[in-house]
């Protein structure tokens, strides 16, 4: 089945002010009203100029919303400040707001306590953990990150500490094994 956006509109690529510059698309509140968001969670599936859909969030700004555009995404689409682009959006009804890595899904399936702790986290922390796991393409590293994440949550009774978890990921990985520095 082909994905079809609920709302479509045109938006201009805009650069935020200094000192930090973010590229974004402005999304009028009335344009996304048909998506019927409730609460603070505004996860969407987005397509730019009819391209491959991806999951993202609508961030609030001055009564409207915006979608940030990463450098890799802008490069891939050849977008520059001032370009007008066709945007398609649908409400993201997925459980986590992004794909679940197979490796982590298997760890959750086998570890009921870890599954309980992971699903007790805020949606934002769940997505952050999933992003940390998929940030590496090597299968063994993804499995190891999945296992380290479960250990991390259990050691902290379900409390997520990004810095501590990220530090545990920095242990050298050589020939399928993690070694002390």
Question: How would you describe what is shown here?
Answer:
The chain folds into 2 domains: 7-91, AF2212/PG0164-like (Elongation Factor Tu (Ef-tu), domain 3), CATH 2.40.30; 102-170. The protein is 34% helix and 24% strand. It contains 6 helices and 9 strands. Strands 4-3-7-1-2-6-5 form a 7-stranded antiparallel beta sheet, with no helix packed on it. It has a two-stranded antiparallel ribbon with strand order 8-9. Helix 2 crosses helix 3 and helix 5 (139-155) runs antiparallel to helix 6 (162-169).
Short description:
This protein is of the alpha+beta class.
Give the SSE layout.
Layout (H helix, E strand, L loop, with lengths): L6 E9 L7 E5 L15 E6 L5 E4 L1 E3 L2 E5 L2 H7 L6 E8 L10 H9 L1 H8 L3 H12 L4 H17 L6 H8 L3 E2 L2 E2 L3
Antiparallel strand pairs: 1-2, 1-7, 2-6, 3-4, 3-7, 5-6, 8-9
């Amino acid at each position: 089945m082909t994905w079809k956006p609920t709302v479509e509109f045109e938006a201009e690529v805009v650069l935020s002010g200094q000192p930090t510059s973010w590229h974004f698309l402005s999304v009028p509140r009335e344009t996304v009203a048909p998506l019927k968001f409730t609460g603070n969670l505004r996860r969407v599936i987005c397509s730019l100029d009819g391209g491959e859909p991806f999951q993202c969030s609508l961030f609030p700004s001055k009564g409207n919303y915006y979608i940030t555009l990463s450098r890799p995404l802008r490069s891939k689409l050849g977008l520059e400040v001032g370009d007008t682009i066709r945007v398609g959006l649908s409400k993201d009804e997925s459980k986590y707001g992004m794909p679940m890595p197979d490796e982590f899904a298997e760890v959750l399936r086998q570890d009921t306590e870890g599954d309980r702790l992971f699903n007790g986290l805020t949606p934002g922390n769940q997505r952050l953990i999933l992003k940390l796991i998929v940030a590496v393409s090597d299968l063994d590293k993804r499995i190891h990150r999945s296992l380290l994440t479960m250990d991390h949550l259990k050691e902290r009774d379900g409390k997520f500490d990004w810095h501590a978890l990220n530090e545990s990921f920095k242990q050298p990985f050589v020939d399928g094994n993690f070694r002390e520095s």
